[in-house]
């Protein structure tokens, strides 16, 4: 599949997809971006030039989530039919297909040591399933109603998961035993993000709020209230200084992680809802997707 890239006023736009993009993931080495969505493809491309490297067509239905392995060699991708593929990023060769879910798999996350994957299922199985990345052996299932997000902690010892119900759970990554349950939101919690040092968690959802809370105690630290519609994506900058959030109000907002109170900058180039976003590993660029395009925003805090 061909892809195009244009730069307009410093903003790059990747338009290789033919339908809505629901997932964007930056490779840990910073050299590639993977994006996937309703056209049933995952596309890998160069974030600097927009050059298209590879199109993966292994899914029969819409792509919902993507995650790179820590060594940037493999990708895990999930779709609405319940499949999770693990495949080689350089060739598109499928290493393993995990079939433990029934339908919509909205989240995939690699363990920091690259050995396991946590995948979160929405309709049908209502669970986070933890399994070995390269042979699919299931280690355990953590039950939760309609899972939207499941992310491994930076230390690899815990997983945070959010769901259609108001709660966010933090649990032991080895056993699945629940440690903390956060109840600060009102309505479904669509997205979560760990701080790079693993001490805090950001969560956001249907109530138009983003919360920062203590990952060890569940104590709420601050609430960000600048969005006017549902928040569908949130991500901590790798340097730990900022959070960015976006959703149905079409505006990408960057705000201070220390206090959670100060809006630092906004990106208003999207014309429709935003479902996914990702920081570059060096915290200088933000990728976000709306409809069938992915925008790259060269973020430099010194400009604001």
From TrEMBL:
Taxonomic superkingdom: Bacteria
CDD domains: WD40
InterPro entries in alphabetical order: WD40/YVTN_repeat-like_dom_sf, WD40_G-protein_beta-like, WD40_PAC1, WD40_repeat_CS, WD40_repeat_dom_sf, WD40_rpt
WD repeat intervals: 14-55, 56-97, 140-181, 182-223, 224-265, 267-304
Keywords: Repeat, WD repeat
Alphabetical list of Pfam families matching this protein: WD40
PANTHER family in UniProt: F-BOX AND WD REPEAT DOMAIN CONTAINING 7 (PTHR19848:SF8), WD40 REPEAT PROTEIN (PTHR19848)
Name of the protein in its database record: Uncharacterized protein
Naturally occurring in which organism (per UniProt): Dictyobacter kobayashii
């Amino acid at each position: 599949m061909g892809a195009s890239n244009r730069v307009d006023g410093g903003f790059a736009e990747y338009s290789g997809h033919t339908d809505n993009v629901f997932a964007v993931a930056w490779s840990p080495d910073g050299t590639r971006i993977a994006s996937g969505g309703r056209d049933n493809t995952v596309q890998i491309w160069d974030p600097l030039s927009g050059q298209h490297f590879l199109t993966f067509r292994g899914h029969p239905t819409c792509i919902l989530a993507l995650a790179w392995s820590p060594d940037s060699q493999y990708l895990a991708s999930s779709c609405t039919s319940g499949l999770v593929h693990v495949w080689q990023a350089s060739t598109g060769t499928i290493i393993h297909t995990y079939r433990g879910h029934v339908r919509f798999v909205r989240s995939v996350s690699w363990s920091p040591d690259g050995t396991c994957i946590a995948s979160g299922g929405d309709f049908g199985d209502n669970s986070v399933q933890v399994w070995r990345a390269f042979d699919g052996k299931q280690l355990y299932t953590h039950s939760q109603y309609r899972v939207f997000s499941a992310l491994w902690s930076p230390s690899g010892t815990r997983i945070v998961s959010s769901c259609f119900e108001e709660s966010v759970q933090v649990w032991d990554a080895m056993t699945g035993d629940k440690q903390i349950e956060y109840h600060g939101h009102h309505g479904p919690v669509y997205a979560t993000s760990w701080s790079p040092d693993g001490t805090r968690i950001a969560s956001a959802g249907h109530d138009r709020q983003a919360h920062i809370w203590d990952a060890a105690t569940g104590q709420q630290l601050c609430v960000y209230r600048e969005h006017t519609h549902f928040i569908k994506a949130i991500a901590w900058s790798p340097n730990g200084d900022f959070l960015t959030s976006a959703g149905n109000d079409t505006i990408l907002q960057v705000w201070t992680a220390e206090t959670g109170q100060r809006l630092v900058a906004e990106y208003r180039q999207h014309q429709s809802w935003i479902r996914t976003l990702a920081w570059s590993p060096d915290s200088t660029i933000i990728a976000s997707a709306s409809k069938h395009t992915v925008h790259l925003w060269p973020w430099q805090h010194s400009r604001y």
